[in-house]
Amino acid sequence: MAHAHYGFDRGLPPQKILSATYAKGQLMFLMKWQGTDVADLVLATDAMDRCPHLVMQFYAVSPVDGSAQEVNEEADAEPINDNQSSVEED
């Protein structure tokens, strides 16, 4: 069974950053690779070291304001049931 390569371990040149998200408390970029339709999540710090020009291009067209982190943190919260009343009726 062959070992699957992901991210920069693919050995392919990065083409474009498609989006950004937070996973396990770390900023990640969804990276598209040249020569394939596949995209992988990579650490933002790795992308900044290996292809800073793509990071700059991504932020130029898709400014990130931290809302992705807020959404992911809120996803762990308990859902609010609108049918429950905080005031009991007699």
TrEMBL record:
Its main location: nucleus. The keyword Glycosyltransferase does not apply. Residues 81-90 have a biased composition (Polar residues). InterPro entries: Chromo-like_dom_sf (IPR016197), Chromo/chromo_shadow_dom (IPR000953), Chromo_shadow_dom (IPR008251), Heterochromatin_chromo-domain (IPR051219). Coiled coil: none annotated. It is found in: Nucleus. One of its GO terms (cellular component) is chromosome. Keywords: Nucleus. Signal peptide: none annotated. SUPFAM superfamilies: Chromo domain-like. Residues 12-59 form the Chromo domain. It holds the Pfam family Chromo_shadow. Residues 67-90 are annotated as: Disordered. This is GL15954. It comes from Drosophila persimilis. The gene is Dper\GL27075.
